[in-house]
Amino acid sequence: MRKPICLAFLIFVFTCTACSSTAIEHSNATPSVGPLVDSFFYGYAYLDANHNGQVDESDPPLADAQFTAADANGLSAGAKTDTKGQAMAWWPAESAYPVTLRMTPPQGYQAVSPGEVVLEQEGANANFLFQAVPTPTLEPTPVVIDVNARTQYTLTAVLNYASHHLTVDEQIAYTNRTTQTMQDIPLIVEPQRYYGVFKLNSLTLEDGSSLTSSADINFLTVTLPQPLQPGEQLRLSISYELNLPFPQPSAVVRPVPFGYTERQTNLVDWYPFIPPFIEGKGWLAYKPGYFGEHLSYEYADFQVAIMVSDVPAASFVTPDPFNGQPVTGYAIAASAPAQIDGDWRHYQLESARNFAWSISHAYQVTARQVGDVTVLSYAFPVHSVAGKATLNVTAQSLELYQQLFSPYPHQTLTVVEADFLDGMEYDGLYFLSNGMYNLYSGTPADYLTDIAAHETAHQWFFGLVGNDQALEPWLDESLCTYVEHIYYEKYSKEGLNWWWNYRINYYKPEGYINGSILGYNYATNAYETYRNAVYLNGAVFLDELRQQIGDEAFFAFLKDYVTQNEGKIVTTTTFFDLLSQHTQVDISALVKKFFGNY
To answer: Which of 39, 357, 492, 549 would bridge 95 by S-S if both were Cys, CB 3.0 to 4.6 A apart?
Structure first.
């Protein structure tokens, strides 16, 4: 125990008498001035270092505590403790007891003991013990992430149609909607795959500060100066040019929609974009395969302005969707309708996977209205009949799929005849190979009808409900292939028989349907192996599933699958978890047959 310093009251009495050189006289008179008395009190402040509630040798002194003393007559004084923890209070008079001693701790400290010391008769000091005020444990403020904060793309593009050159200024507003801190952001840049096509002029933050990036086959990895925290927004500005390629059709590799031909220019995946980020998986960013789609897209909003610098605005035609008469001339087909302002065409597309457009001097445009949606067909004049047939199939499909799955979310749906093989889906627009127009037989039992129904279905199974197209392509391709069957059930029994015989069974569908596009690269007849499993055997799986669980459960499941997953990226697990809520039928043998040990 630390010993207090005890000092008695100092009482000095001075008595003065008169002195002479000759004699000393003593007086018995009462002095006229009483004795002079000063009162002194001491306080000591200590920090309870070992938290035992007692003052001991291990407790250091505490400076800046306020010491006060007050007696019964109201006399008081005080001072702050010095670096030794000591303070003195005094007044020039005798004290009237009891005397109360108090010590107020400095900011950040609180008393342990005592609150005050009362001296009843005598005493001049007291010890006071304090401790630091505990720092409250603050719960981390939860990061509020706006899951509906879609990425915003603003694109201003100027095309020289004759020289096949495009200049673009792009702004991206991206919100980190994940729980992960992001130091690097990948930008998918598909034009970079083609030699001499993509020229990056600048890549900056919104404030103009430059960013560093590293290039790979089809993306740039952008290094951020500061990590992007969950809930924070990043704004990028990109200036670039495209010298468009002239792709050649090939029967052994995937279709190449991007670029120009003698009759059209197709701008697909023409802008850098940020791929989806999946918690626990990472970025859905893949290099291209030999076939199949390798790109996945998150929901985003698009503001696009397009000007064609070498074609007068008056040369462009705008179809009238109500008179049913085809118009021919320069036309731009796009994922959204245009608002025309002089030489500029402005497009707005919200909650979409991507924005695509195509321009030609030779398009013949027809239109048809389905409820609030305008269906547009852009075909070459030599295929006027096939173009109208494609328009009608697209309109029929749109009407049917809205009844079965969910409303179509955009103002327009556009089909474009393409100078490349096969069909290719984009949000609000799809391409259909000119080869199918060439071979159109005039009956529904035809690949033009079949693939038009398939590509229209992608507006639901790709557009509304997204998936990892590289690793789980069956989630859109198997479903869209089987929806062809549903189309024929509704509109053509003759076409349905043809479909089973020549679309499916002729190619001998086989193989597990849940393979990735990358898993077939080294297979013999790789494309056929992939197609026969994912597309064709996938359709067989869905037909057998329908037979086992019944039409009511099957179509109720498909409807919920679309409505509950709109705007999301689904997985095979998503599919089967939701399916289990719609049927009690044991489908384990069916799953093993088509998925192996999934």
So the answer is: 39
Q: Which of 538, 528, 461 is nearest to 290 (CA)?
A: 528
26 vs 37, residue with greater confidence: 37
Q: Which of 356, 348, 232 is nearest to 301 (CA)?
A: 348
Euclidean distance between CA atoms 494 and 501, whole angstroms: 11
At 356, which amino acid appears?
A: A
- Give residue-wise pLDDT tens across range 460-483: 999 999 999 999 999 999 999 999
Angle (CA) 138-141-146 rounded to 5° is 175
* Mean pLDDT confidence for 24-43: 61
* 346 secondary structure, DSSP code: E
Distance CA 186, CA 221 (A): 4
Sorted by sequence, the CB contacts under 8 Å of residue 299 that are 6+ apart come out as: 150, 351, 352, 353, 466, 567
In the three-class reduction of DSSP (H, G, I as helix; E, B as strand; rest coil), residue 143 is classed as coil
525: alpha, beta or left? (left if phi > 0; alpha if psi -120 to 50): left
Domain borders along the chain are: 11-132, 465-598
329 within 8 A of 281, measured Cβ to Cβ: no
**Length of the chain, in residues:** 598
Q: What is the pTM of this model?
A: 0.77
Instruction: Please report which helix (H) or strand (E) contains residue 477, including its range.
Output: helix 474-491
DSSP, residue by residue, 157-224: EEEETTTTEEEEEEEEEEE--SSS-EEEEEEE-GGGGSTTTEEEEEEEETTS-B-EEEE-SSEEEEEE
Determine how β-strand 357-370 pairs with β-strand 165-175: unpaired
Burial class (CB in 10 A: 0-12, 13-18, 19+), 571: middle
287 contacts 280 by C-beta, under 8 angstroms: no
CATH number of 11-132: 2.60.40.10
CATH topology of domain 465-598: Neutral Protease; domain 2 (1.10.390)
Quick check: 185 and 234 in contact, CB under 8 A?
yes
Q: What is the pLDDT of residues 253-292, one digit of tens each?
A: 667 899 999 999 999 999 999 999 999 999 999 999 888 8
